[in-house]
Amino acid sequence: MSRLILKDNIHASATCTSWCKAAVSVRVVEKYPWLMFFPKGDNSVELLDPLQRKLYILNLPELPKSTVCYSRDGWLLMGKAKSIDMFFFNPYSRELITLPECWYAFDEFAFSCPPTSDNCVVVGIRFLAEFVVISTCHPGATEWKTDTVPCYLRPFYNQSNIVYCKDRFYCFNARGTLFSFHPSSRTWSYTGADQIKCPYLYDREKYGWSEKGVSLVEKKGELFVLFTSRNEKPLVYKLVSGKWEEMIPTALDSLNIFVSYYNSELRTKLPWMKNDVYFSRFSYRRQRCVSYSFDESRYNPDEEWQRWRELCPPQSLWIDSPPQNVLDLLMK
């Protein structure tokens, strides 16, 4: 059983009781993220379990007048509204880690790993007419370190577009060119990867000037990118040997992408979800999130499509599911 992929493991487990026990004992299942929504002017957040479609309220008095900037590994990077204060916050453990005062109004933020790690690096990027302003810091630092790099980079502003992969941060520009920033050497460079030829970017006659979305995703050292264009099907590409290859639905192999304005997550070993894109948009009745099924070639829930202007509104994001002790409290 240990040699089987997840799909075959599940099929084999239905054979008999002994096979089921053997299959479950070696089955590796990833945890899927939950959707977190930040109501305006409130100290509480809403948590949606996208599989069970259950909504929970989590009170967070530590976050008055705060805005989220980025999320990964169960941590939030937060900033105080109309302030220069920034900090990390874990909504489940309530741990708060301060950062140096941030004097620049950056367009995008990201961080490399949990702030409890010695290797954690925070990056802020500001896009100017012919320059890119890049600042970095880390937990325990006393100030941000800033560089200005000559570079014309027209970015995407409507979805997550900075990820950390291996030893550097990556970012797309609006023409489909991939750039990287190496924090140790403080080097900003063009990666050499082929310019991505997504029709949503170049075919204005067919797809018009409607709102486009791009989301970079990292998974085990590999880079993926997802493009959206209103009610068109999402397009997924994978970087292979410096070339972007479109992943057709039959080649997705139970791949699930969770997309938000601030971050994107990718999961491959979810037995109850497969070949779907989950957006950080609540449905009309707030019982589920909006998704796209590659197997069914449609958005869900289909009847509400005309209500949405943004698939990824800036008030919500994906975050690791709560640990069992927090979940027990939420269910009381």
From TrEMBL:
Domain KIB1-4 beta-propeller positions: 51-280
InterPro entries given in the database record: Gal_Oxase/kelch_b-propeller (IPR011043), KIB1-4_b-propeller (IPR005174)
Pfam families: Beta-prop_KIB1-4
Domain of life per record: Eukaryota
Name listed for the protein in its UniProt record: F-box protein At4g00893-like
Organism expressing this protein natively: Camelina sativa (False flax)
